């Protein structure tokens, strides 16, 4: 195993930083940012299996194997790790193995990807996150909870439909939702785990917007006028299906519109203040992010 700390000739301490979920989009983006923000530190990526590990192709990153459902594997994976970017999973209960392993291995700091407004119902995800936050608090390990709002990417089906047809139907009415590009969340996570100085909670969100406003951002991204029209939920789903849009992505877009329309979810209180302070720059403009998603 690597040593816990090493020093250069200036006496500066190098850290061992591990990112879980490294085979996913968030984790891979976070590792790329860490190579910029912590160029002298030792970077580690967690994968569940050797097969999964094959997708981690970043130079200068050491892969360790571990599964949240197997505490023994997590104890092995977190040996000599100083700081942990703990990318959450929705499976109830198993995240305690990560916290317990981190405590056993004397991990010195955890940045945990939690959820924005956990005091409201968030598809039931708030229960898992609140429970994990409490486990981390009880462990005594210093932490930052990255309370993320929603990924812009949940509306990928709508962006693809607009690109294909020149139309942007929606049924969420005047409800509002805070949406931000996944890369921005990953950058904030990388900055948080690299610095360890952002305090116990970062509320990471954008200004909430309506789906009509999202349609206008999509129009700007496409660089052409599109029809932005309110419709019924049934017609929305029929339209996307008839255009050959992925049923999985269409279902996700439907789900988040219902969430937005129903309200009482804390989204109205979202602001960019913590997010942009953590990043040190504005979050990505929606139209620019949508261009990236479509490309």
From TrEMBL:
InterPro entries: NAD(P)-bd_dom, NAD(P)-bd_dom_sf, NmrA-type_oxidoreductase. Gene3D superfamilies: NAD(P)-binding Rossmann-like Domain (3.40.50.720), UDP-galactose 4-epimerase, domain 1 (3.90.25.10). Pfam families: NAD_binding_10 (PF13460). It comes from the Bacteria. Residues 21-164 form the NAD(P)-binding domain. PANTHER family: NMRA-LIKE DOMAIN-CONTAINING PROTEIN, QUINONE OXIDOREDUCTASE 2. This is NAD(P)-binding domain-containing protein. It comes from Companilactobacillus versmoldensis DSM 14857 = KCTC 3814.
